[in-house]
Automatic annotation (TrEMBL), chain A:
Pfam families, A to Z: PTS-HPr
CDD domains: PTS-HPr_like
Protein task: General (non sugar-specific) component of the phosphoenolpyruvate-dependent sugar phosphotransferase system (sugar PTS). This major carbohydrate active-transport system catalyzes the phosphorylation of incoming sugar substrates concomitantly with their translocation across the cell membrane. The phosphoryl group from phosphoenolpyruvate (PEP) is transferred to the phosphoryl carrier protein HPr by enzyme I. Phospho-HPr then transfers it to the PTS EIIA domain.
Alphabetized NCBIfam families for the sequence: PTS_HPr_family
Name listed for the protein in its UniProt record: Phosphocarrier protein HPr
InterPro entries with a match to the protein in the record: HPr, HPr-like, HPr-like_sf, PTS_HPr_His_P_site
GO biological process terms on file: phosphoenolpyruvate-dependent sugar phosphotransferase system
A GO CC annotation given for this chain: cytoplasm
Cell location: Cytoplasm
Residue stretches spanning the membrane: none
Species of the source: Xylanimonas oleitrophica
Automatic annotation (TrEMBL), chain B:
Record protein name field: Phosphoenolpyruvate-protein phosphotransferase
One of the GO biological process terms: phosphoenolpyruvate-dependent sugar phosphotransferase system
SUPFAM superfamilies found in the cross-reference section: Enzyme I of the PEP:sugar phosphotransferase system HPr-binding (sub)domain (SSF47831), Phosphoenolpyruvate/pyruvate domain (SSF51621), Phosphohistidine domain (SSF52009)
Pfam family, one: PEP-utilizers
Keyword Transferase: yes
Similarity annotation: Belongs to the PEP-utilizing enzyme family.
Name of the gene: ptsP
Source organism of the structure: Xylanimonas oleitrophica
Amino acid sequence: MSQRTAVVASLQGLHARPAALFTQAVAATGVPVTIAKGDGAPVDAASTLLVMTLGARLGDEVTLACEDEGVLEDLARLIETDLDAPDAGAAAGTAAPAQEATS
Amino acid sequence: MTVDAGPTTFQGVGVGRGMVVGPVAKAHPSPAVPSDGGPGDAEALRAAFAAVAATLQERAGAAEGAIAEVLAATAQIAQDPALLADAEQRVAAGESPAQAVDRAVDRFAEMFRAAGGYLAERVTDLRSVRDRVLALLLGLPEPGVPALEVPSVVVAEDLSPADTAALEVDKVLAIVTEHGGPTGHTAIIAGQLGLPCVVRTTGVMEVEAGREVAVDAATGTVVVDPAEELRAQARERARVQEELEGDTAPGSTADGHAVALLANIGTAADAGRAAATPAEGVGLFRTEVLFLERSSAPTLEEQTAVYAEVLGAFAGRGGGDKVVVRTLDAGADKPLAFVTQPGEENPALGVRGYRLVRREPELLRTQLAALAQAAKDTGTSPWVMAPMIATAQEAADFAALAHEVGLTEPCKVGVMVEVPSAALRAADLLRHVDFVSLGTNDLAQYTMATDRLRGSLADLLDPWQPAVLDLVAATARAGAELGKPVGVCGESAADPLMALVLAGLGITSLSMSPGALPAVRHLLRRHDLDTCRAAADAALAATSASEAREAVRALVDPAVRDALAL
């Protein structure tokens, strides 16, 4: 299992739209991925409900874990994007096909 | 009304003045878990979640704007792997699918409530998924308002904001709820749409779908299988209403004392609709609608565009071009994801309205700057006011900030009077601003120490309560002394009898949902200023809300009273 930390770049944290875009990207990889905030327990990164409950805010460090290095890298980049920005949907959209290629 | 052995009558609290007769369409309540747990297995559970997600997704695709976003977010919850896994584990452990869904949703709802703020608001979406999945598992009709074949009276236990937003407005004759309160969101939206509405109607869910009912918002009654006499009355009331709508002259008493009659709006679309009515402008533009259901504040440019659209709808309008914009009134019953702090013990007494400036000063500055820019773009001079002002210093600070960003003469800067301290010292406030506007719903809440959302205490929230009237009178007096306008933009402005009292007290403008304007206009037109003053004196002399209302009612021309069902 590989791990990677990433710092949340979405202005409003992993809530609402950012959480939805991130979990959709996770689900699209088809690979099990977990996410944890700080020293907290890891949760299923494909679950919007659990990701929102983490309460990760702008600047918080989260740890992603999964078997696939490429997926990990793409998802970490997504966390480090401001997903509240108007064009963030496109960023999340491009992340998914790239991951399909690696898995 | 006499209740003989004939038709069944249900009594509730009426909102609005209209009366209609039509068939009942029942919104189905949220299903309960049967005591035996109900049928099904893990496979049925997965299928139900998948079907609910697919239906919601499809509807999200067909909807627009905020409704589409709410539906899409709800669809995503219905396919959440953690929620499904939790429910499946419970089924594996021996619970029935219905029980499992109920408890799995409860667990997440509890986590969301504990987190507060934005997440606490999402509990409604979780519940909506629970209700839909449960209905499928138990073979019950889909919860919420069904598709309407013919114009109908929608009868529900209560309507969620999502239910209300999804109503097919052109097929709804009236809304009747078993729960809810007269200042709740269902009542407010019904008012905006001009639909008769009766809330807190105990027992009304017993009426079967398809039965004809007469709904009278003026008396708060719902009569099943109404006799011809009642149907004739409904027709006559509709005729009078139509006639009233033919009067489009500016608001004034019989002897020509002007009282500006304005509309309350929440969106640019509302502004377009209000501009097409005889309203003499907008007395309350609630800007928070622009901020709700968002995870971050709208930008300066986004706000400027919306404000310009609203101001543009009234720019150079012959029938009156006044637009009063209220700055963000968030907090308490209107939490915002990005400003509300979770865990405030008394949100109605906490950091809400103008007080947000203590924590997020940029929010207000940006909003005022956007309004100043929109005023420039449209060549208009809006009035702007801050909600929840408690001291003269706050009024002075708000005025200074508004002037600083460019909202100067001929724009007007004012404050809301909703807190008793502001009413008692209205003259001090008015020395710093150009006008004040009374928000009677909050003024009643804070004067009577009664939660606006607590339907069972509605009698205490009555704007006819003598103590509330005293504060309104004190504010009006301060305005008269300083020669500055004092308006009323709470629900009480929509009560025709109260309008007489307010005019008599010296209130200069009344702002209400556009549907309420014709009756208020008519009643003012039929009475002179002396009668209004006598009504104000009679109301202030009363020692209870009902006594005050009755005393004023007795002064009204009986012919007008009958025509308006007062």
